[in-house]
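Hey, resending since the last one bounced:
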Amino acid sequence: QLQVVESGGGLVQPGGSLRLSCAASGFTLDDYAMAWFRQAPGKEREGLSCFERSGRSVNYADSVKGRFTISRNNAKNTVYLQMNTLTPEDTAIYYCATGVRSCTNSQRFYSYWGQGTQVTVSS
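The structure tokens again:
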């Protein structure tokens, strides 16, 4: 059974950094694209970045460009989201998702979602 599990969220001060992890099981990163989304309170879920099966990354959100970096470790079957220079506007639940063959910014195509990890940026 395909499963993704996020970890690494928490409370961080403005300007700080966090690295989120998304561990995949039941498939390999060569089988499906893996994407990061986030949902802030009162806002729609927003696509951030995605890894194609080939390992090519796709970035969707201008708001995190230059601050967030997606990476992956095939041996650990894990995708990461390095988040730097965090601001209160980055406060959200962060999700990883999979189940598509190619990256898309449309969340409705992703069949498998993690439970999410809370990131709170506050002093």
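The chain has no helices and eleven strands.

Sorry for the duplicate.
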